[in-house]
Design goal:
The complex is a heterodimer of chains A (186) and B (367). Chain A has one domain: 2-Layer Sandwich (Alpha-Beta Plaits), CATH 3.30.70. Chain A contains six helices and five strands; from the N terminus they run αβαββαββααα. In chain A, strand 2 and strand 3 form a beta hairpin. Chain B has 367 residues and is an alpha+beta fold. Chain B contains 15 helices and eight strands. The model of chain B has no long low-confidence stretch (mean pLDDT 87). In chain B, the strands form three sheets. A three-stranded antiparallel β-sheet of chain B has the order 1-2-3. In chain B, strands 6-7-8 form a three-stranded antiparallel β-sheet. Chain B has a two-stranded antiparallel ribbon with strand order 4-5. Chains A and B meet through helix 1 and helix 3 of A and helix 2, helix 5, helix 6 and helix 7 of B.
């Protein structure tokens, strides 16, 4: 093979690529489309669904979820409702593995979609319970097949109410239903 | 007339653009010729093995993502296989196919990165690396579709995989499979016959067959030295036994062969992915495994053919929720054993070529 043919062949490839459209995205102005399952920060949390069982805190490999509850005296279908005093997620140490979301038995905690949370101080990187209450309810469909089956995409901007986020039937069982089920189980 | 010369010791790294992480080599040079080298590592040590002793078996999956961060899926697979062996868990067939499918996609992504950085080390600034990254990006997009993350996937769990791929995954994979061979051909045309690449890599950094075996080198580096040893064939795990693929083998064991074997392996990996898509059965993707499970006291070792070589996890259980000991056989680390023999006598300009051709990943070397 004559010397230089290999380089010439390679140059043909680069020439052809010169005519292609760029694949890069000019980030702050343009954004890539996120997949619905993207595991992002800004956790979505439904207080109505949360019982304060702290499964998420127990399952977290980093141990960054802090939950403090107290009995509220309020009776619901599932039993006595616990009041959540603290629900702190120390997002600075979070690695977005999604194990807390996988663990949540009541579908109260969902992954979010954000990825822009640069802060000057590490102490600002804590998601508090007030922030969780106020945050937009656009959950990622990671480990939530019920949302995915409905074709939900958090990028659409549509918010999901707490009644629609669960994996159980849309109509919540009544207290009598629960009691009957419990008696049958025993 | 020979000029009187004195040897000089220089430090390469730990912060060097071509060391793929924080790796330091103390090189003793006589003029341009390498007389002695001393590899120094540990700058990226995070204590993964120790951390594993205080995580539950499921939580350790997240640690394995961060070993060789260019092939997280394969690390996940190796770890969950060791756990399943230890606890005697069943894995549904569909989950096994999904594991093989994602692991092979990950191998393609990892090899593309290895090739790209190798060429970058040769001085081909930018172009081939960016071409490789462009194709790798498509695979990472698929990973984001399946499991919500691109690099730190945490997709597999003891007893299966986390989730069923979404419906749009299959058409996307089909499109990728139809376009990818074209991209790889293009990459081959760009670089394989390039006279500069050939001149700089052919015959450089020879790793003879005997030395490769004696220093326990595995993976593409061993196969480039002419040993057809691949754990996917030698000890088939998951559903690799049903797959039809070849083991590309090099003949000389030089840097060019190591590079060539990686390019050939991409084709074979794509073949395996295609067969997975055809054969995958319906069914459950995860057997019922509680989050906190206690394997019976004992030990288990599972190894897989990772993108860099044989990746093994040795787990010892004392009956608790966390392993008593977790030993990781990291292929990148062991592939560095023959570095001194390979480098002695070569010029300092060849150092990065030889080191780059080994395709080591510091996250795995230091663990």
């Amino acid at each position: 093979m004559p010397f230089g043919l290999g380089i010439a062949k390679g140059m043909m490839v680069t020439l052809r690529n010169l005519a292609r459209k760029p694949v890069t995205v000019q980030y702050p102005e343009q954004r890539v489309t996120q997949n619905p399952r993207f595991r992002g920060e800004d956790f979505v949390w439904y207080e109505e669904r949360c019982t304060g069982c702290a499964s998420c805190a127990k399952y977290c490999p980093q141990g960054i979820i802090k939950i403090v509850t107290s009995p509220s005296g309020e009776q619901t279908q599932e039993g006595e409702k616990y009041k959540l005093e603290t629900f702190d997620i120390e997002i600075a140490r979070c690695m977005f593995c999604g194990l807390c979301v996988e663990a949540c038995p009541y579908d109260a905690l969902h992954m979010g979609t954000g990825f822009e949370r640069a802060m000057p101080r590490k102490s600002d990187l804590v998601i508090t319970v007030d922030e969780l209450r106020a945050s937009a309810k656009r959950p990622s469909t990671w480990f939530r097949p019920q949302l995915q089956d409905r074709g939900y995409d958090p990028a659409s901007g549509e918010e999901v109410s707490w009644q629609d986020a669960g994996r159980e039937a849309t109509v919540a069982p009544t207290y009598d239903d629960m009691l009957k089920r419990w008696v049958e189980k025993r | 007339m020979a000029l009187p010369s004195e040897s000089i010791t220089i430090n390469l790294g730990p912060q060097h653009p071509s060391t793929h992480g924080v790796f330091r080599i103390r090189v003793t040079l006589d003029g341009e010729v390498i007389q002695d080298i001393e590899p120094i590592f540990g700058y990226l040590h995070r204590g993964t093995e120790k951390l594993a002793e205080e995580r539950t078996y499921t939580q350790i999956v997240t640690l394995t993502d961060r070993l060789d961060y260019t092939s997280s899926m394969i690390n996940n697979q190796a770890y969950v296989m060791a756990t399943e062996k230890l606890a005697g868990l069943e894995v549904p067939e569909r989950a096994q196919y999904l594991r093989v499918l994602t692991a092979e996609l990950q191998r393609v992504a990892s090899h593309l990165m290895g090739i790209g950085f190798f060429l970058q080390d040769l001085g081909a600034m930018g172009t081939p690396l960016m071409y490789c990254f462009r194709e790798r990006e498509r695979i990472l997009d698929l990973f984001e579709m399946i499991c919500g993350a691109r690099v730190t996937v945490s997709y597999m769990r003891p007893g299966g995989v986390t989730q069923e791929p979404p419906p749009e995954f299959w058409p996307a994979l089909k499109e990728l499979l139809s376009e990818f061979p074209h991209y790889i051909d293009e990459l081959e045309r760009l670089i394989l016959e390039n006279e500069i690449v050939v001149a700089r890599t052919k015959g450089v950094g020879l790793l003879p067959r005997e030395l490769a075996i004696d220093s326990s080198i595995s993976g593409p580096n061993l196969r480039a030295s002419g040993v057809a040893w691949d754990l996917r064939k030698a000890d088939p795990y998951d559903v690799y036994g049903r797959m039809d693929f070849d083991i590309p083998v090099g003949s000389n064991g030089d840097s060019y062969d190591r590079f060539l074997v990686r390019v050939m392996e991409i084709h074979q990996s794509l073949r395996i992915v295609e067969q997975c898509v055809q054969q995958i059965p319906d069914g459950p993707i995860r057997s019922e495994v509680p989050y906190f499970f206690r394997p019976p006291p004992g030990d288990a070792y599972a190894h897989v053919e990772a993108s860099k070589g044989e990746l093994g996890f040795y787990l010892v259980s004392d009956g608790g929720i966390a392993p008593y000991r977790c030993k990781i056989r990291a292929p990148s680390f062991i592939n560095l054993t023959a570095l001194t023999e390979m480098l002695l006598g070569w010029k300092v300009a060849d150092l990065m070529v030889i080191f780059g051709s080994l395709d080591v990943n510091m996250g795995e070397v230091d663990r």
